């Protein structure tokens, strides 16, 4: 039987439990599973900065704090919000551990336009 919320996505942020700093922005359709993926599949992850941070936390007996930001989104809505959030947090000087993708450079102007027109962040 298919989960009723399987097609609903959330954007989320990972915070450092020691400092409260925002370290990562992502999307998921299962918050508990996604946190488990982040903390237990460290050998499969390609983001070495994020892996190093999570390993450091685990050595101290800690795990990242996962905070949902937006809920009940379609996958495409969640991807757009994720991209916008990554761009805006970086614009604000936050050193996120997200990999930088080519779309971030291509869409910089587009993101600024979205931000300027949006009431989402006000």
Give your account of this protein's structure:
The chain has 122 residues and is α+β, with helices and mostly antiparallel strands. The protein contains five helices and three strands; from the N terminus they run E-E-H-H-E-H-H-H. It has helices spanning 31-40, 48-59, 75-91, 102-106, 108-117, and strands at 9-15, 22-28, 65-73. A hairpin with a 6-residue loop joins strand 1 (9-15) and strand 2 (22-28). Helix 3 (75-91) crosses helix 5. The chain starts with 8 loop residues before the first strand and ends in a 5-residue tail after the last helix.
> Fraction of residues in helices?
40-55%
What is the H/E string? Answer: EEHHEHHH
Number of strands: 3
What's the pLDDT, averaged over the residues?
81
Lateral arrangement of strands in the main beta sheet: 2-1-3
From the alpha carbons, calculate the radius of gyration and give it in angstroms.
15 Å
Question: Could you list some keywords that capture this structure?
Answer:
about 120 residues, alpha+beta, 3-stranded antiparallel β-sheet, about 20% strand
């Amino acid at each position: 039987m298919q989960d009723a919320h399987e097609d609903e996505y959330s954007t989320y942020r990972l915070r450092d439990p020691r400092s409260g700093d925002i370290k990562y922005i992502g999307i998921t359709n299962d918050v508990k599973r996604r946190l488990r993926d982040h903390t237990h599949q460290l050998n499969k992850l390609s983001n070495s900065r994020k892996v190093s941070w999570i390993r450091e936390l685990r050595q101290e007996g800690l795990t990242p704090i996962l905070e949902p930001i937006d809920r009940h989104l379609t996958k495409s809505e969640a991807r757009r919000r994720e991209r916008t959030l990554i761009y805006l947090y970086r614009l604000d000087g936050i050193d996120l551990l997200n990999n930088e993708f080519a779309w971030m450079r291509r869409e910089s102007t587009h993101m600024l336009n979205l931000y300027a027109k949006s009431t989402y962040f006000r």
